[in-house]
Design brief:
By secondary structure, this protein is α+β, with helices and mostly antiparallel strands. It has helices at residues 2-58, 63-77, 88-107, 114-121, 124-129, 154-159, 485-488; strands at residues 181-187, 194-199, 205-210, 214-219, 225-230, 236-241, 247-252, 257-261, 266-271, 278-283, 289-294, 298-303, 309-314, 320-325, 331-336, 341-345, 350-355, 362-367, 373-378, 382-386, 391-395, 412-417, 422-427, 431-436, 442-447, 458-463, 469-474, 479-484. 24% of the residues lie in helices and 34% in strands. The chain starts with a helix and ends with a helix. α1 crosses α2, α2 (63-77) runs antiparallel to α3 and α3 (88-107) runs antiparallel to α4 (114-121). One of its GO terms (biological process) is mRNA splicing, via spliceosome. Residues 82-112 are annotated as: Disordered.
């Protein structure tokens, strides 16, 4: 009898292991199909843009077509490494360009660009005779000369769209001013500091998690509390609303990761595996997977359907404070108490690169909604990184405007960007900064007032889907709603 039972137990273990392996393979295949579909869409978009550009260049009579052809000629003749042109070769190139333009305006509608290119490259020997020099970049805000080099960098071209025909002394346009923000409502109900906030994609409600172990769902219009969710045994640290199912995910100091069914308002799944408090959680916008970061220094990727851990990502040497994911790339970002930002390959389950410019703990990482840019908020500064490689772009200028509430010891605790390119940064002293995404400049600073007998400090923030409302979760147990002044009247 014992032999039969032992054999049956081994058979059951084999079947369980086989089932688990099938689930892991299914999850990996799903991720690979997702990446392939994304790549096909990107290639199709690139081909469409290429076809549109070819159509414009093929029409010499069109103004846009002429500008593209002119820019192509000048870029071909003056590479980015060349000094500012000021010799006979320049005159020859300009003469060839003007002749091409005259032909395009009516003398020869069917003429192509080959004759102009021959004229340009006929002077290539003059260009080669010039001693190689290194040109200094044009300072921001300086006048752009008509003899300036035409850079190939698309970011620079987008910022200076009139470089080809610009006149001496014309400076780049000033960024459009942003409307200011005003506190509209203060919501109370939690009995402990509010540590996280998330907004539903329908923009009809949002949720908050608190140190009092509860999760509250609030009506976006009436600001009334609709539902109380009770299930965590310790403080709730992170919330994420699924875009592909009616689920809400939460994590907390009790090492728990929970999946809530919002149609039944109860926990339907628990994810076990972290060996410490779980500080951050993010739901993938298109796949049934959830990413968590924990005090145990690990980032885990969970399959929602099977409840299994698809990947365990190791590399941080201190607690992981923030994680985020995106739809445009199979990539995860995480920030930790070790002052590091990691970029992870979601499919392979391994580290892509480590970003090391922060000098203090990284409290928040977030992807831009449209650009391939990552923003990381450390206790020291806010930095922007180009994706997918993680090249450093710039720091946000947190002190380029008068800051009456500024404190040299402020620790930046959270950072978010809206779909209207407004960046908000919150501090542990209640300081709230509003910055412009494109110019990186500060246009408003405020400081929240704590409710009576409450502590000061902003612990989390989230914009609504319209980008006209901001929700802050604060240490004084309150939730505050801010509105743009053009929305409040």
């Amino acid at each position: 009898m014992f032999f039969i039972l032992s054999k049956a137990a081994k058979s059951t273990e084999k079947m369980a292991a086989s089932t688990l392996e099938q689930l892991r393979k299914s999850n990996l295949e799903s991720m690979q199909r997702f990446v392939a579909r994304k790549r096909e869409r990107e290639l199709a978009q690139q081909q469409q843009q290429h076809d549109n550009t070819d159509d414009l260049i093929a029409d010499p009579a069109s103004t846009i077509g002429w500008e593209l052809r002119k820019a192509a000629l000048l870029r071909a003749y003056f590479p980015a490494s060349a000094p500012p042109p000021a010799d006979e070769a320049v005159k020859a190139a300009r003469k060839a360009a003007e002749e091409e333009r005259n032909n395009a305006n009516g003398k020869s509608q069917s003429a192509d660009v080959s004759s102009a290119l021959v004229a340009v490259f006929a002077n290539a020997n003059l260009r080669q005779q010039r001693a190689p020099q290194t040109s200094s970049p044009t300072p921001t805000g300086a006048a752009v000369s008509s003899n300036a080099i035409i850079p190939i960098n698309p970011e620079h071209l987008r910022q200076h769209t009139s470089l080809v025909d610009s006149q001496p002394g014309v400076a780049p346009s000033v960024p459009k001013s942003q409307p200011h923000w005003k506190m509209a409502k203060v919501l109370t109900g939690h009995h402990g500091p509010v540590q996280c906030v998330a907004v539903d994609m329908s923009n009809e409600w949002f949720c908050t998690g608190s140190r009092d172990t509860t999760i509250k769902l609030w009506d976006m219009t009436t600001s009334s509390c609709k539902i109380n969710l009770i299930g965590h045994k310790e403080a709730v640290r992170g919330l994420a609303v699924s875009r592909v199912s009616p689920y809400l995910f939460s994590c907390g100091d009790d090492h728990a990761v929970k999946c809530w069914d919002l149609e039944r308002n109860e926990v339907i799944r628990d994810f076990h595996g972290h060996g410490g408090a779980v500080y951050s959680i993010a739901a993938h916008p298109e796949l049934d997977i959830v990413i968590t970061g924990s005090r145990d220094k690990m980032v885990k990727v969970w399959d929602v359907r099977s409840r299994n851990c698809a990947h365990t990502l190791t590399g941080h040497t201190a607690p992981v404070l923030s994680v985020c994911t995106q739809a445009s790339e199979p990539q995860i970002a995480s920030g930790g108490d070790d002052c590091m930002v990691f970029l992870w390959d979601l499919v392979a389950g391994k580290s892509l690169t480590r970003l090391t410019r922060h000098r203090k703990p990284v409290r928040t990482v977030t992807f831009h909604h449209a650009e391939r840019v990552l923003m990381s908020a450390g206790a020291d500064n806010i930095r922007k990184w180009r994706l997918p490689e993680g090249d450093f772009l710039t720091n946000m200028n947190l002190a380029t405007a008068p800051m009456p509430h500024a404190a040299p010891t402020t620790i930046w605790t959270c950072c978010q960007v809206s779909n209207r390119n407004t960046v908000v940064v919150g501090g542990d002293d209640g300081q709230l900064l509003f910055l412009d995404w494109d110019s990186h400049s500060l246009f408003q600073s405020a400081r929240t007032k704590p409710i009576p007998e409450g502590e000061r400090g902003i612990l989390a923030a989230a914009f609504d889907i319209s980008g006209t409302r901001l929700i802050t979760a604060e240490a004084d147990k309150a939730v505050k709603i801010w509105k743009r002044k053009d929305e409040t009247g």
